[in-house]
Amino acid sequence: METARPTIRLLSASDAPAYASLRLSAIDEAPGSFLSTRDEEAKRSIDEIEARICSTANQVVFGAFAGDRLVAVAGLRRYPLRPVLQKGFLWGLFVVQEHRRSGIARSLIAAAVHQARAMGLAQITLNAGVDNARAIALYRSAGFETVEDEPCAGEIDDDADREVEMVLRLG
């Protein structure tokens, strides 16, 4: 029997508990892929999580649902400063293990790209762990290209050797 394809939609305040649980699972599975630690994330109030996932003029968060269960998420944020309003950032893409390699991540990326165009963005950037070959291959297949390393990146932070920055130009 074939299972129904998960439904993708924007998250709302009522999804905050499910998002919080999924985010903790994601951090447990791949702690190096997130800026916050599990302890920091676990301390967030439901109000903070609602503010993080609810749509604004500058941000949306998509969720993929298998029935009532949130099984994947991805966020798109517009840089809010006037000189870079045309740029967005794809963040927090995560799919639970049993739903990987099913096309959900690709569908979430497509939803984010569609939304970016609707927001008038000219490009979307993202960061992926340099060792995450599957994610990098997925992003490349969606049209993202690796950005050349900035000459002073190592002086700004210690991510230069751990992350790959990628960009999708929406032309």
Automatic annotation (TrEMBL):
Task: Please give the Gene Ontology molecular function terms for this protein.
Answer: acyltransferase activity, transferring groups other than amino-acyl groups
Q: Does the keyword Acyltransferase apply?
A: yes
Under the heading InterPro entries, the entry gives:
Acyl_CoA_acyltransferase, Bact_Acetyltransf, GNAT_dom
Chain ranges of the N-acetyltransferase domain: 6-171
One Pfam family it belongs to: Acetyltransf_1
Q: Does the keyword Transferase apply?
A: yes
Q: Which UniProt keywords apply?
A: Acyltransferase, Plasmid, Transferase
User: What is the protein named?
Assistant: GCN5-related N-acetyltransferase
